[in-house]
Request: fold
Amino acid sequence: MKVSIITSHYNQSRYVAECISSVSSAEHEVEHVMVDAMSDDGSQEIIGRMRHDRMVTVFEKDKGQADGLNKGFGLASGEVLGFMNGDDYYLPGGIDKLVGQMERQGLDFVYGGQINLDCSGRFASVSVPDGSEPGQIGNYSTIFEPACLWNRKVWERIGPFDIGKHYTFGWDFVAKVIQTGEFKVGHVDDVVSVNRLHPERKTSNHNATREREIREHLDLFGDEVCRDLSEIVLGKTGKISSFSKIRPAVLRERFYPVVFPILSRKYSCDDLLRMARLFS
Reply:
């Protein structure tokens, strides 16, 4: 199966070469559609030097990452689709593991695990799926979009991304895929991609727009427990944290002692244990 990976990119010159190399190293036939929103940090020159015959490049302004990705998907020719951020990358064999699982199990949508690196490039955390993630998808995302692939009929049914959302368009897309119940979803119990946590990345900016979008996502897809939890965290910290990326020791020492006593007034032990598993 031919695969198309889309990258919507802007000013990530420190990382974009590794992104491109990780896509081109796959054993499967992979088309890489790179949509650059007129970067001015030397990225365009790097992309130009690394361009190859299976790479499509677009250099033009867009209305945000979702818009850039939609442009890329509109140009993609593969039967299998996915996207990778310009500052992240696939692990060796990552794409091939995902595609192989799609072929073996006849999947429409497949996801794998993700390693998170801190701003110094050091290991921060890892998420390895166990198959329970679709049941949690309406809450804080435990399926990471750059660690996913899907077939074209999924995109035609659920896409394009909502360009009105700058932070949660991927969460919404995956939640809709799961909640329609129309597609065969599976996973590989291995890590396939690397996510960089650094100050310049868009999701490091905990602003009012991001918080509003997360609230809206939870209103549409989340359950009562997680909506309450987000409100507590907003009230305590002024922002919604990405719980899946917080080290378990930090959760145990600093988060649970504050939040769980409050929630225990309303929820059962089973609910509290479910949240502990979800957020650690």
Q: What stands out?
A: The mean pLDDT is 82. The radius of gyration is 19 Å. The longest strand covers residues 185-196.
